[in-house]
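PROTOCOL LOG
Step 1. Enter all chains and additional molecules of the complex.
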Amino acid sequence: MKIFVCVKHVPDTAANIKLAGNNGFEDSEIKFVVNPYDEFGVEEAVSLVEKNGGEVVIVTVGKAAAAATIRGAMAMGAHRAILVKTQGQFLDASLTAKALKAAIEEDGAPDLIFTGKGAVDTETFQTQYRLAAALGLPVANEVSRLRIDGGKAVAEQEVGGGDRQVIEMGLPCVIGATKGLNEPRYPKFPDIMKAKKKEIKEMDISDLGIDEAAGAVVIEHLEPVPERAGAKMIEGSVQEQVTELVRILKEEEKVI
Amino acid sequence: MAKTGILIETENDAVKETSLGVLTAAAGQEIIALVMDANPASVKDKLAQYGASGIVSLKPASGDILASPDLAARCLEAAVNEYGLDALLGTASAVGRDLFARLGALMDQPMVSDCVAVDIDAKTVKKSHFSGKTFATLRVNADLLLATVRPNAIEAVPAPAGGEILEFTADVQDPGLAVIKEIKKGDSDKLDLTEAPVIVTGGRAIKAAENYSMLEACAGKMGGAVGASRAAVDAGFAPHAMQVGQTGKTVSPKLYIACGVSGAVQHFAGMKTSKVIVAINEDKDAPIFAKCDYGIVGDIFEVVPALTEKL
Ligand SMILES: Cc1cc2nc3c(=O)[nH]c(=O)nc-3n(C[C@H](O)[C@H](O)[C@H](O)COP(=O)(O)OP(=O)(O)OC[C@H]3O[C@@H](n4cnc5c(N)ncnc54)[C@H](O)[C@@H]3O)c2cc1C
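Step 2. Run joint prediction.
Step 3. Record the structure below.
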C-alpha cells in the first residue's frame, strides 16, 4: 500500500503565543510539533504498512522549518517525506489542499490518505475535505475507528451524545484521524537516528503553480482571548458557599 | 439585506436550541431556514418566531439525504443557487462541521468554521485560533459567505418573521462516494456536550466512574451535560466522548463548572470561551483558580451534593 499522511507543523499547544503586529505571531522562540491529530494518522498508516507492506509518505505544506517536524513524524516509522515550502504559517485551506494534491499526484497514486481532524493553530477543519474533492475521492473526518477490508474503508465517527456513525467508502479515500483511533507510538532513539537519514523532497509552493497570497480568507486581526484574572472566591461554610453561588448564577450572571 | 440560508438541526421534529442562536446570528437579514430531517410544518412556528421568512425542506429528487453526506452537500448547493443566497450558516456540530466543509470543497468557495461572531454584511467572522488562546478576525473575499457558528456562542433572541413553507426539490444525484451504514446509539440519551448550555465536569478527583452520577444529578437540575478531564478519561472513569479539551471536545456553554479539575492548559483549550467558569477544588492554589470567574475551595464530594440540593 502507498499511504500518504498530511502532517502540519504547528506551535506546541502548551506554547505561549506572543502576537506580533496585527495578524502575526513570534515563531522563533516557540516549539513546533507534529499537529497532535496528525499523529493518529501517522500511527495508523505505519501500522497498516507494517501489516500489509508498502510505504508511508509524509506530505507537509509549511515553512522551511517544518523539516524538523517531519523528522519527528518519520521517526514514528514513515519512509520518506515531501515538503512544499511556504513563506507564512497561515495558508488558506483551499491553497493548502491544492498544494497537497499536486504533491501527492506528482509522487504517485495513493491507496489511502490520512490527515488529522484539524490543525490546532488555525482550527479551520476542512483541508481534508478540499483535498478529497480535488482528487475526486471520498472523505470521512473525525474518524476514531477504522477497518480496511477488501478495497473498502469502514470508519466510525462520533456524532454527539455518545452516538457513533459507521461510514463506508471505497479506496482510495481520505481519512481525518482523531483520538481513539490508536495510541501514537513514542519514537525510540534508534528510530530518531534513522529518521535523520530519510529523504525529504523539498519544493516551493510556487513550483506547483500556486500563489500563496491568493487565498480568499484573510486574517485581519489576532487578539488574545481575554484571560480571567482574580476569580471571586466564595467564602463561608459549604451551605453558605452554594447558596451564594446559586444566587450569583441566577441573579447576576443569569446563566441558570 | 443579504439573503441568508440557515441549516437548521432538529431532534424529534423539534428545532435544536443551538440552531436558534444561528438564526440570531443572521438577524436583520432575509432568512431562509433549511431543514433536513423534520417535517417543516412541525418546526414552522419556532423558526418563524426566530426570524425565518421562508422554510424549506431539503429534499433530493432521489437518494437518501441522511445516508449520504455528499448528497446532502449537493442539496445544500442546489438550495444556495435556487434561492440566490448571499450567505449560508449552520451550527458547528458534528453534522454542521462535516456538511459545511463538504459544501465549501464542492463549491470551491471559502468556508469558515466554528465562529463565535459573524458579520454577514461585512463578511467578517471571529473565531478561535491556537487552541483557544487567541481570537482571529477573518475576512472572507467571496460572493458567498459560508460559516458554521459555535453552539451557544450567540444568544438566541426572538425576531418574528413570516415563516412561509417553500416547496423545493433539489435536482441532484448522489455521487455514491460515502455511505452512512449505521448509527450506533450510545449507552444513554445524553445531551451532546458541544451543544449543552451548562456543563459540569469532573476531573481526576472524581476517583471512580460511579461518582459521575453525582455530577449528573447536579447537571440534570440545570438542563446540562457532564464532561471529564483527560486525566479522568485516561484513568477509565469516563469515556472519551465526555472529554473536554485539546484532544477532546471544544465546548462553549453559558456555564462551566469544573469539579476537581486542576486547570491544565490543554483542558482550558477546550472550555476557555465558556461564558461563566466556576471551579470547585480542595487546593486553594490549583491553577484553575487563577483563570475562572468564581471559585469554591472545598471537597467536591461535599460541595456538589449541597449545590444540587440548592438548585
Ligand atoms: C498533548 C496533550 C493533550 C491533552 N489533552 C487534554 C484534553 O483534551 N483534556 C484535558 O482535560 N487534559 C488534556 N491533557 C492533560 C492535561 O495536561 C492534564 O493532565 C489534565 O487536564 C489533568 O486533569 P485533571 O485536572 O482532572 O487532573 P489533575 O491535574 O490530577 O487535577 C485534579 C485536581 O483535583 C483536585 N482534587 C482532588 N481531590 C479533590 C476533591 N475531593 N475535591 C476537590 N478537588 C479535588 C486537586 O487539587 C487537583 O487540582 C493533555 C495533555 C497533553 C500533553
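Step 4. Note key features.
The mean pLDDT of chain A is 95.
The first strand of chain A starts at residue 2 and ends at 6.
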